[in-house]
Amino acid sequence: MKYYSHLNRSLNHDFCPWANAYVYWLKKPIGWVTLAFVASLLLGVGVSNQAFLATAAIVALGVIGCLWPWIVMAGLRGELKWNQLRCEEGEPIRTTLGLTNRWPWPAWGMVIEADDAISSSLETPGQPICLSRVPAASVSDFQWVCKPTQRGCYPKKQVRLSTGFPFGIWTNSRKLTVAKPLIVWPKLFKLTDVPSHTGNRSNGIGSASDIVGDEGDWMGVRPYRPGDSLRQVHWAQTARRDSLVVFERQSRSRQMVSIRFDPNAAKSTSEVQREWMIRILASLTNHFLQHSWQVQAQLDEGWNVLSPGSSCKQQWMDRLATWDHELHDSRNAAMAPAVRSSMEFVISTPSAALEQCQSIPSHERNRTTWILVAADEQEAMNLDLSMLNQFLIVHVNKEPVAQLQAKWQRMCQRTTRSLVGA
């Protein structure tokens, strides 16, 4: 066994790496066709004229193999689209490729060159979609179900349709248009709250105030303004004054939570940890928004105030989907939010959290809850985290979703504050 291992290493060892730049062209079929052409030509000149027959055959093979893919692609037009423009990581989504073949003959051996997340199906993940035949003079739709496993805006690179038919000597491609990009959001995980027995509904959605709004009790009447709902019209007063009069209602003073993402820690950690930090940030903001909290979230240099509502959530999730740690500079990021909130969360790594905690005054540490993302149990084993008043650690190598949900639930049980109303 050891002999075969040594033999395998010796046969696959690169003894002349300097020569790779000169012989890499032989890895492509056109390189071998060119080499065969030169060899047959030399044989015809120096050995026998009959070798020119092989030269002619090789030339015909090369011309057809290079020209036919170009001719086929000249008559094809295609567009890529999805049945929805937004989805989460791991969510199946239907992809449609519309192809128009203007030639009176079919096209064979098509391959879609794009990101693996959108150019492979659920049945064959990682394998590109291949079209065996496109009918002649037709408009055809090809559909498959893909499953993007990483957030982002797709396609991340140019989508092409290529073919090497019939001999695979030369591959020609054509750009495909994309109707609208597909935005893949970070995966959202459900968090279960266990409020304390002293909690009431106003802890979650805020108590009524005297400010005019749309959620509390009736406060009075006022003249109609464009945009007011007809359900608010006071018909008795309207008939008496001969002009539209509507009710005014109270608003609710919502609870506010601050969630800070540590981009410096994300830049200095692995891609796996960074993606889990983004998923936890998305899940945490979505969790509080679903319970009618206002959220102050910091991703880079500024704070974003998020209010409950689908449009606000969509804009925030779109930003998380396209965030790139290499394109953002957080050196001037404000540590403190503009408005003091009842809770503060920081998403970071164990080592980065200890560095930041030293710059926070001791009386402010009690208000901060740290959510730490670690690669494994060894990362935080040698660190003294007692400086952090309240924290939970998620290890990405061992069922991080179950860890987050269980530790979040235990943290809610221990706290003296009710996270949401009972």
Account of the 3D structure:
- The termini are far apart.
- By secondary structure, the protein is α/β, with parallel strands linked by helices.
- The C terminus is likely disordered.
- The protein is built from 13 helices and 19 strands.
- A hairpin with an 8-residue loop joins β8 and β9.
- The protein folds into three domains: about 110 residues, Immunoglobulin-like (Sandwich); about 45 residues, no CATH class; about 160 residues, 3-Layer(aba) Sandwich (Rossmann fold).
Please name the defining characteristics of this protein:
422 residues, alpha/beta, Immunoglobulin-like, Rossmann fold, six-stranded mixed β-sheet, four-stranded mixed β-sheet
- The 3D shape can be described as flat
Number of strands: 19
Strand order of the largest sheet: 16-15-14-17-18-19
Distance between the termini: 67 Å
Q: Output the CATH topology of the largest domain.
A: Rossmann fold
Q: Report helical residue fraction.
A: 25-40%
- The radius of gyration is 32 Å
Topology (elements, then pairings):
Elements (H helix, E strand, L loop, with lengths): L1 H10 L8 H4 L5 H18 L4 H24 L1 E7 L3 E3 L4 E9 L5 E7 L2 H4 L10 E5 L3 E9 L5 E3 L5 E4 L8 E4 L1 E2 L3 E4 L15 H5 L1 E17 L11 H7 L3 E9 L2 E6 L1 H5 L3 H20 L3 E5 L4 E4 L3 H13 L20 E6 L1 H8 L4 H4 L2 E7 L15 E6 L4 H15 L8
Helix pairs in contact: 3-4
Short note summarizing the structure:
This protein has 13 helices and 19 strands. The chain is of the alpha/beta class and 422 residues long.
